[in-house]
Design a protein that fits this description.
The structure is a homodimer. By secondary structure, the first copy, chain A, is an alpha/beta fold. Chain A folds into 3 domains: 127 residues, ATPase, nucleotide binding domain (Nucleotidyltransferase, domain 5), CATH 3.30.420; 92 residues, ATPase, nucleotide binding domain (Nucleotidyltransferase, domain 5, 2-Layer Sandwich); 79 residues, no CATH class. Helices cover 39% and strands 20% of the residues of chain A. Chain A is built from 12 helices and 14 strands. A 6-stranded mixed beta sheet of chain A has the order 3-2-1-4-5-6, sandwiched between helices. In chain A, strands 7, 8, 9, 10, 13 and 14 form a 6-stranded mixed beta sheet that branches. The longest helix of chain A is centred in the C-terminal third of the chain and has 23 residues.
């Protein structure tokens, strides 16, 4: 019996076949929720055949849904329709799979449970000592303590995890920089930020050299390409400037200040969690996770999930994890 | 010779005829910069005839323009085209009017100069002692010291004013709440915020009762109406919750916490500016300005600009001020 794992988010859909094939597509769910089913059908159709879908999600938090219950039901509808006769299993934060009907009856169990699937899988790989899974993605950072092969998180829902600090709403691509304010250091002064979506964290990490240019990708704050030149223009707009007023070197210094702020936010959330024997880093922001781990847990070993999953598998790690868990 | 004053912003266009007629229209310039000329022509056409246009702007900061120079030129093109044979005068932060050609030659002088026109007019009304003009608008707060009838600001451009604290990028309608983070108190805990535009300050002030419902206005984060019920749903989404998880009373308590945060941000920017004899409050957020003035300047008299201009005039105060200055 072969399985495809699906991680259904609000900005990206990720699928991983148990045999190792992985696929990610951008899909702005909030702007067209009615197209989710077709988008999922295309995604699954592009992978080898399977007998079962294993599903986890975060898409229910999109504000096109009035409540999480509405969002969960919408995702379950789409997943069960494309499954047809195939079995559908939904991961819940109790640490097991349930049927779609069971998930509908208690929607908060499967809402935003994708981190839990990944953490459960990772916990099974590191049975000894105390580990921290630090997944820095495009939008969020998950900080999940693991102990004796189990997930040892204190919070389970998004709301609880924002309160415990196990979910930090900061990622390396999509976070609007106003969320890193209200101010930043520039030219040796404290500088207020504009509360506009003029630039995102992708712009910061382009200028610091942590992320690569994507000249054909215009999914940026101003619709211009993800190149260093345009990123610099976007970045300095956050402090009310433009590239006639500020040099590229100064824009790079500003990017370094934002990088330091992001690093500090993550490290500050980790420190109260205590000591760890190892930090397992994953996600598109693994570079930032490594730096945060070295800062907050200087004595811990740093393990890269990508070394175990491969870079492609790591990109869709939650989908891959849920597929593996279903196949066990 | 009669004058219409124009305050050309990125989200609103405001016009005031010297005889007292005032008009404001919402216009999302960043999404359709090519339509500015037609929108301005309609706006001016709806007021009594005039011989002269007096112009101030903030629209140049929209990210549809690569630089402020590009934005200023675009605004000047539109204004001079609709003016036809009529004179066009542009307010600059030197405290005088220049011709459109002079403005093009030094674009930073007229970029985001609307606060300066209002402050100049207000300064002329209060010649004695030290005053603070505190204008809390939909998006920003201007904090302008006035002394002996003159504008005594330390910064002139947006960038300088963000560094001096004379511009606080916080208003009572359009500010995404993520800019008030990274965390907020809820249920007696510190709660991380989602870095998504799920709710704006309008939602906060709807729930605190400071602003009225607008059931037919859907210019909100989720496209649903500006009513208290929808505002509560938007607000609790910021902490990863929905109205099945959080009561309306708790949502109101959360709104009060955001209100206190906003008040503190403004008052904290005022305190380093020293003592004032009076605080002149204006803008759609005058209610918040009064509270911030009482907190930061307990010994100052509070004067409402609306008492001098009327509520309608106060709504388009910068347009009205630039018209009056041109007519002097």
């Amino acid at each position: 019996m072969s399985t495809i794992g699906l991680d259904i988010g609000g900005a990206n859909l990720k699928a991983a076949h148990e045999d190792g094939a992985v696929r990610t597509v951008a899909f702005a769910l909030w702007s067209a929720p009615e197209r989710l089913e077709a988008a999922l059908a295309r995604l699954v159709g592009a992978l080898p055949p399977c007998d079962r879908l294993a599903v986890t999600m975060t898409a229910e938090l999109c504000d096109c849904f009035e409540t999480k219950r509405d969002g969960v039901n919408h995702v379950l509808d789409a997943a069960t329709k494309i499954a047809g006769e195939r079995e559908v299993r939904i991961w819940i934060t109790d640490g097991c799979f349930v049927s779609p009907d069971e998930a509908r009856a208690a929607p908060l169990g499967c809402a935003a449970a994708n981190w839990h699937a990944l953490a459960t899988w990772a916990a099974g790989r590191h049975l000894e000592g105390r580990s921290l899974l630090m997944d820095v993605g495009s939008t969020t950072t998950d900080l999940i303590p693991l102990a004796r092969g189990c997930v040892a998180a204190r919070g389970l829902t998004d709301a609880e995890r924002l309160a415990t600090g196990e979910l930090v709403y900061l990622g390396v691509r999509r976070t609007p920089l106003m969320a890193l304010g209200p101010s930043i250091g520039f030219r040796e002064r404290v500088h207020g930020l504009m509360a506009e979506r003029f630039a995102d964290t992708y712009d910061v990490f382009l200028l610091t050299g942590d992320l690569d240019e994507r000249p054909h990708d215009t999914d940026s704050a101003d619709g211009r390409p993800l190149t260093r030149g345009h990123a610099a223009a976007r970045l300095v707009r956050m402090i009310g400037a433009d590239l006639e007023m500020v040099s590229h070197d100064e824009a790079s210094a500003l990017a370094e200040a934002f990088r330091a702020r992001a690093l500090d936010r993550i490290a500050s959330a980790v420190r109260p969690m205590g000591e760890f024997d190892r930090v397992i880093v994953s996600g598109g922001g693994a570079f930032l996770a490594v730096a945060a781990a070295r800062s907050a847990c200087p004595n811990a070993a740093v393990v890269r999930l990508a070394d175990e999953l491969g870079e492609v598998g790591a990109e869709a790690a939650c989908a891959w994890a849920v597929a593996r868990l279903a196949a066990q």
